[in-house]
Design brief:
four-stranded parallel beta sheet; binds beta-D-glucopyranose
Length: 356
């Protein structure tokens, strides 16, 4: 009798597992996706990891998700572990995009395909696809926002501006600066924009590991060294974390909402969105990480099933070895005028979250 009950229970378990998999989940045959993410110190990556995990599990995959807290060596070890665990595919958002060539070669040798997530993996032929946002487009959108907000094309005023750009080991940061300067360089050249520190090149403005503390320190130094007699009008920053750093520096230097500069950011993090509503940040770049995760999941399925994923760029993302077929989502500028429609309407945040 016990044996019969055990058998019935076993059959029931198999049936319910098959049902849980939904949409053919049971056919995934227990395939495992290893996801290496850079850090939990910035909200966007927590959302990215969470969305990827949820979407993959929904489809019946196992997921190993790890964060390396901006420690390059820790990320290398995490990926090595995933390779020895024999994951079926790797998704990597690199901390230092050029520091992973060794583990990438190992993965290739073990027959594990790699998808670059948000940040291009440099100097390797082991990457199959790249899912990201149009990174030069992010820079352009920030530049165009500043151009329009200050009516740079028509104004007779001059505006002071300082730049806080992303990490030199992140290809996205280079592209963002390029896009930004395509819009703003003419106004620096004709004197409408004045950068008193003279620091406008990527080399002079990039901040290693996207450090908020460094941005704050630089902003403090700029304000005391160059803006004692004249207000800083624009903080062109590449990241919400930098915008928080600038806010602290500006408050420390006695700025109030009366003479607050235009401050840009990227990611539309919750805190940034609240700062936008309160007036302490002017804009951010909204990147719907749910959409990015969806495109990346499509790439995972393609490498596992030998099908073609959705690709919309086959020319831009050369990593010094190969040009990686990419899907680029569209970044959108968000500010006080459209946050309700974009962030609340789009279900990214609830009104309560933004009010809290
Ligand atoms: C991402 C940005 C993010 C930055 C800092 C970049 O690679 O594209 O969305 O703000 O890293 O985490």
């Amino acid at each position: 009798m016990k044996k019969i009950i055990a058998l019935v229970l076993a059959v029931m378990m198999v049936l319910s597992l098959a049902a849980c998999g939904g949409n053919g989940g049971a056919q995934k045959g227990g395939k495992t996706v290893g996801i290496a993410m850079p850090t939990q110190s910035s909200e966007r990556w927590i959302k990215d990891g969470g969305n990827m995990k949820a979407q993959l599990e929904e489809k019946g995959y196992n997921v190993v998700l790890q964060y390396a807290e901006d420690d390059v060596q820790a990320q290398v070890s995490q990926i090595e572990n995933m390779i020895s665990q024999k994951v079926d595919v790797l998704v990597i958002a690199a901390i230092d995009s050029g520091a992973l060539t060794g583990v990438e070669a190992q993965a290739k040798q073990a027959g594990i395909p790699i998808i670059a997530y948000d940040r291009l993996l440099m100097d390797t032929d082991a990457v199959s696809y790249y899912a990201s946002f149009d990174n030069e487009g992010v820079g352009r959108a920030i530049g165009e926002y500043i151009e329009k907000a200050k009516d740079l094309a028509n104004t007779t005023e001059t505006y002071t501006i300082e730049f806080f750009m992303g990490s030199p080991d992140d290809n996205n940061a280079v592209l963002l600066h390029r896009g930004l300067m395509k819009v703003l360089q003419p106004y620096l050249d004709n004197g409408t924009l004045v950068c008193k520190t003279g620091r406008t090149s990527f080399e002079d403005t990039c901040i290693l590991r996207w450090s908020q503390e460094t941005a704050q320190q630089w902003c403090e130094n700029y304000l005391s060294g160059f803006y004692a007699d004249e207000d800083l009008d624009i903080c062109a920053t590449a990241f919400d974390g930098f915008a928080y750093g600038c806010r602290s520096a500006l408050e420390g230097a006695g700025y109030t909402l009366e003479n607050w500069p235009l401050i840009t950011g990227q990611d539309a993090e919750l805190m940034a969105s609240k700062n936008i509503i309160a007036g302490y940040q002017t804009m951010s770049i909204y990147k719907d990480t749910r959409l990015l995760a969806e495109k990346c999941v499509g790439m995972i399925e393609a490498v596992l099933n030998g099908t073609e994923p959705e690709i919309n760029d086959t020319t831009t993302y050369n990593n010094n070895v190969i040009t990686v077929p990419s899907y680029l989502c569209t970044p959108v500028a968000v500010d006080q005028s459209n946050y309700e429609e974009l962030l609340i309407g789009g279900g990214y945040y609830t009104a309560e979250e933004l009010a809290g």
